[in-house]
Amino acid sequence: MAENSESTYERLRARYLAGDVPWDDSLPPPEVIDYISSQMPGMALDLGCGFGRASIYMANHGWQVDAVDFVPEAIVEAKKRAAEASVEVHFHLAKVTSLNFLSGPYDFALDVGCGHALDQTELRYYRDQLCRLLPQGAIFLIFARLREEETRTGCEDLADGPPALNEGDLIRLFETGFILEWSERGTTDVPDQPTWTSGWFRFRRSD
């Protein structure tokens, strides 16, 4: 059964409080670095920013960044790290499904492991917010855990690691307002957990 937003919040906050944050790293994933290095700086939106590794990296490369997370401890630490790196990032304590306080427009939106914890209703709100904030031609890059069993829909809370999304559901969801330009399946290794299937998807805002 999929988590609701409240149980997701409690699970993630407990991990931050315990220091159990295996996704913490000094640099964002190579896929993010490759994209940022190929683009002129612009306006970026980091969704589920955690401790801000991608936000800080983008700001260091000339991007103006808004970053969102709903865990207070993550935002406090992200602000501290940005200050230590002497970069300006606008961090916001909020849910990624409730972004009415932002106006954009953004040239680039990034989600590294946030969207796969949303249920189908939340994902639609999330998609609609991105449609509002991203103009035609803007890029949305998302990394998500993928579920092997394609006969079930929505996200699913699995015993080993984060919830997972049906790949087909994700692609169909973003057929509204976006064009899928590139995707790549792979595996993710997390300490003390089994390896799980994951994927990167790059969408371009179509209208």
Describe the structure.
The protein is an alpha/beta fold. The chain is 31% helix and 23% strand. The protein has helices spanning 5-18, 30-37, 53-60, 72-84, 120-133, 167-173; strands at residues 43-47, 64-69, 90-93, 108-112, 139-145, 178-188, 196-205. The model is unreliable at 150-161 (pLDDT under 50).
Brief account:
The protein has 207 residues and is an alpha/beta fold. Helix content is 31%, strand content 23%.
Quick tags:
207 residues; alpha/beta; seven-stranded mixed beta sheet; 7 strands
SSE diagram, text form:
Elements: H1 5-18, H2 30-37, E1 43-47, H3 53-60, E2 64-69, H4 72-84, E3 90-93, E4 108-112, H5 120-133, E5 139-145, H6 167-173, E6 178-188, E7 196-205
Q: Give the helix/strand class.
A: alpha/beta
Looking at this structure, what is the CATH superfamily? Vaccinia Virus protein VP39
Adjacency order of strands in the biggest sheet = 3-2-1-4-5-7-6
Count of β-strands: 7
- The shape, in one word, is globular
Helix content: 25-40%
- What is the CATH top level name? Alpha Beta
DSSP strand (E) fraction? 15-25%
Whole-number total of structural domains: 1
Rounded mean pLDDT score: 87
Q: Unreliable segments (pLDDT under 50, ≥5 consecutive)?
A: 150-161
CATH topology: Rossmann fold
Strand/helix succession = HHEHEHEEHEHEE
Distance between the termini: 34 Å
Rg over alpha carbons: 16 Å
Q: Tell me the CATH architecture.
A: 3-Layer(aba) Sandwich
- Helical region count? 6
Q: What profile does the largest beta sheet have?
A: 7 strands, mixed
